[in-house]
Write a structure and sequence with these properties.
Elements: E1 7-10, H1 20-34, H2 40-43, H3 51-55, H4 64-79, H5 89-98, E2 102-106, H6 111-121, E3 127-129, H7 137-143, E4 148-151, H8 154-162, E5 166-170, H9 177-182, E6 187-189, H10 195-204
Parallel strand pairs: 1-2, 1-4, 2-3, 4-5, 5-6
Length: 208
């Protein structure tokens, strides 16, 4: 039995990759470059929302666009090599493919940098769509007819809801399992290593 209609969307930061080391290094370098204090330890506890939502804590609003461009320019040489895949990331993508489906990545991260992360780690989804956050992600999820969206953040639950997709969450980001359940996730997994075992049950009795 194949499931050619199956499309599963995945978030990137703290779902497929542990982006904390690379982002910490990039914020530290940005602080040195601009002479502006940034608490990188604090910033990496708040990953998920768009970059500008973090930068506004450290820079005046009128500087945000330029600082964001500078950060994204610095990012590839600082953050890519420092960022590992999270346990189960490759296996989760493989599980979708083995079920006859396609796996896409939908992320708030700047799309060129998201693609660099995945290329560096040897993870090759069927599509990568960046620069989308929370309900905005539903645009891509609907375009690709994704029935499932896997993430780690409240924004990812909102994205799945807006796309009328099943919200599957992993407790590898800023929210614990109980918090994700309370926020309305349909499925809560400890991490992506549990995903390949979960998927067959979903395919046997998919939810609307």
């Amino acid at each position: 039995m194949t499931h050619m209609a199956l499309t599963v969307g995945f978030d990137l930061d703290m779902t497929l990759i542990d982006s904390r080391p690379g982002i910490h290094a990039c914020y530290t370098a940005l602080a040195e470059r601009t002479g502006t204090y940034i608490d990188a330890d604090l910033a990496i506890t708040r990953l998920g929302p768009p970059l500008e939502e973090e930068l506004i804590n450290w820079f005046p609003a009128e500087q945000l666009a330029g600082i964001a461009d500078l950060y994204r320019e610095m990012y590839p040489t600082i953050a890519i090599a420092a960022t590992p895949a999270l346990p189960g990331a490759r296996e989760a993508i493989t599980a979708v493919r083995q079920a006859g489906g396609r796996a896409i990545v939908v992320t708030a991260k700047y799309e060129p940098n998201a693609k660099l992360h995945l290329k560096h780690l040897g993870i090759a989804p069927d599509a990568v769509i960046g620069n989308l956050w929370a309900e905005q992600k539903a645009e891509a999820l609907r375009e690709y007819a994704a029935g499932v969206y896997v993430g780690d953040h409240q924004g990812d639950i909102r994205a799945a809801r807006a796309a009328e997709a099943l919200s599957v969450t992993v407790a590898t980001g800023p929210f614990g399992a109980d918090e994700l359940a309370a926020l309305g996730a349909d499925v809560v997994l400890a991490d992506l290593t549990r995903f390949p075992d979960w998927l067959p049950g979903y395919l046997e009795a998919p939810r609307a």
